[in-house]
Automatic annotation (TrEMBL), chain A:
Annotated ABC transporter domain residues: 5-235
Family membership noted in the UniProt record: Belongs to the ABC transporter superfamily.
GO molecular function, one term: ATP hydrolysis activity
Record carries keyword Transport: yes
SMART domains listed in its UniProt record: AAA
Keyword annotations from UniProtKB, A to Z: ATP-binding, Nucleotide-binding, Transport
InterPro entries: AAA+_ATPase, ABC_transporter-like_ATP-bd, ABC_transporter-like_CS, ABC_transpr_MalK-like, ABC_transpr_MalK/UgpC-like, Mo/tungstate-bd_C_term_dom, NA-bd_OB-fold, OB_MalK-like
Lineage: Bacteria, Pseudomonadati, Pseudomonadota, Alphaproteobacteria, Rhodobacterales
Protein source organism: Thioclava pacifica DSM 10166
Protein name: ABC transporter ATP-binding protein
Coiled-coil positions: none
UniProtKB/TrEMBL annotation, chain B:
Protein name, per record: Sugar ABC transporter permease
Alphabetic keyword roster: Membrane, Transmembrane, Transmembrane helix, Transport
Membrane-related topology note: Multi-pass membrane protein
PANTHER family linked: ABC TRANSPORTER PERMEASE PROTEIN, GLUCOSE IMPORT SYSTEM PERMEASE PROTEIN GLCU
A GO BP entry: transmembrane transport
Amino acid sequence: MAPILDIKHLYKNYGSTEILKDINVTIEKGDFLVLVGPSGCGKSTLLNCIAGLEEITSGSIEIDGRDMTHVSPKDRDIAMVFQSYALYPTMSVAKNITFGMKVRGISQEEQDRKLAAVAKQLQIEQLLKRRPGQLSGGQRQRVAMGRALVRDPALFLFDEPLSNLDAKLRVEMRSEIKKLHHRLGASMVYVTHDQIEAMTLATKIVVMKGGVIQQIGTPSEIYNHPANTFVADFMGSPPMNLIPARAHSEGNGTKLEIDREGLEPIFLDVPRKDLPGDVVVGVRPEDLAEAGYRSGDTVQRAAIRVDMVEPAGADTFVTTHMGGKMITARLHAETVAHPGEMLDLEFDLEKVTFFEPTSGQRI
Amino acid sequence: MTDATLTQTGREPRSAGALIGRRLLRWGLYALLCLFALYYLLPLFVMLTTSLKSLEEIRTGSLVALPREVTFDAWGKAWSGACTGIQCEGLRPFFWNSVMMAVPGVLLSTLIGALNGYIFAQWRFRGANLFFAFLLFGCFIPFQVVLLPMARMLGIFGLAGTIPGLIFVHTIYGLGFTTLFFRNYYVTIPHELVRAAKIDGAGFFRIFWSIFLPLSLPIAVVTIIWQFTQIWNDFLFGVSFSSAGSQPITVALNNIVNSTTGVKEYNVDMAAAIIAGLPTLFVYIVAGKYFIRGLTAGSVKG
Ligand SMILES: Nc1ncnc2c1ncn2[C@@H]1O[C@H](COP(=O)(O)OP(=O)(O)OP(=O)(O)O)[C@@H](O)[C@H]1O
Ligand SMILES: [Mg+2]
């Protein structure tokens, strides 16, 4: 079966500035693709290109097996939810939802039937007569979703639909969108710069930076095997610790030496032979554990000096300095640690990723 | 101790002085405002009272005195009997000329201005800035400069000396401002609205008609008041491009005042001037509150 969305060698320029460079993305039916990246990296531009709201400079876009590169937005079989919701201010909620059907000349009975179904699904039946100005942020969000849902398109596009909501509502709507995706089995492309949203919603994540795709993969691939230091740093909160170290070949393994200010260097033995002399060691905060909690050959212990202790309810974050960088460990809530004192930590070397220091690429 | 008394005695008169000063300032301000109001209203007062006096009373009485005997004869004559040259039908036919010129002129220039503004604000095209600069230039072009070329154009179109010709001229020269008004209003509306409508399948005119026009009431009122005042009060185009049967009321007013046959009928002149000014006054009173609102209101919350 043809993929739902197939983007090949897409380039987008505004004047002489390249905004998107050689974008290649494929998603299958039922995929939930999340585009994530820092502000200004071109996520919205890419989404607008998929929607046909922006002409692309070169490359091709296929939706549901048909070439859509030069097709106008209304004929692409897509629906889109915008960051500002873009509800028509002078129309009632019902009119907002049925406007598209009205424009397309769908019969009144059909419009009424679909409106009722969508209103029920999103629980906005009691709002249908109101104007967008009389709705709360969350309600507007629902109406915007409703407008997309009545289309029943091949592909849904979302541009940061939750970024205008407060934290609690955002979490609520996030799980609702996820449920919706399961129930409809719909294919979606979803833009966000919130990496937690990306992790929780996606079946597939595209991490972008400066108009270039850094990595495409499942959430766990992106989290556990970041392609470069940018992805490692961007995904995860707190981000992955990136510790500069020197590697010395030793026997059939490598000894890592991590400098510390005012303390002995830390030495760790890695059963790998392919590391360059200088290397960046990537460790997730949760892969630094208190002594005694991890076991196995790959776990190695080192004493560190505690800089700061931040209890955060479920976890306690402990920071220290290594290789000139601030390092965070995510420890148990009941951990007892005091700034300035020493604490034994265990490094789970099984979970460690190595990066080339200059290019930032994973080794 | 001495310190304390010093500061106390030092402070008291100062604060009292400040209070008096502030009160004086306040009264001074009111006096000044009243003076200005008087300055503006006195001519109107004189016009109104004079128009209600008989010629006899005008000759004998004082200019600012109230009429001893109120009579509407002058109004009647101004409306349907005063002479504008050889013809003595009063302002009535010219009033309708003006209505027939102003109403279509206002509606056309407003509608086209709305469409232009919509394009400039929401459908940026190559060279849009240059076009917009030209349009703005059109706002400030001195009308004397265009009289001759326009007369020639109207001649070519066969519209010279007709009301449609005047409508045409006023529509063209109103577009600069109407476009500016609507453009500045529409740029505050997020582009995502157009994008959403495009995805919904709506085209250029559909989006304008169903989404932008319904949003436009405040700015439409501003534009209509502005254009109505401009067109109704215009004299230069009226006197240049009209013929005997198509003269607007401003030209007729001038003719009434200037046609000196016998005694000068100040009461009729005053009544005629007020009649000529009433429609703009009426428009302000009916739509004035939208005018203020429209000038200050901008963004539309989605
Ligand atoms: N019409 C335009 N003309 C020129 N440059 C543009 C235009 N629109 C966007 N850009 C540029 O393209 C880049 C990508 O913009 P885009 O809106 O896609 O970013 P984004 O990833 O969606 O960011 P955010 O997370 O802030 O929404 C930005 O650097 C922006 O300045
Ligand atoms: Mg964006």
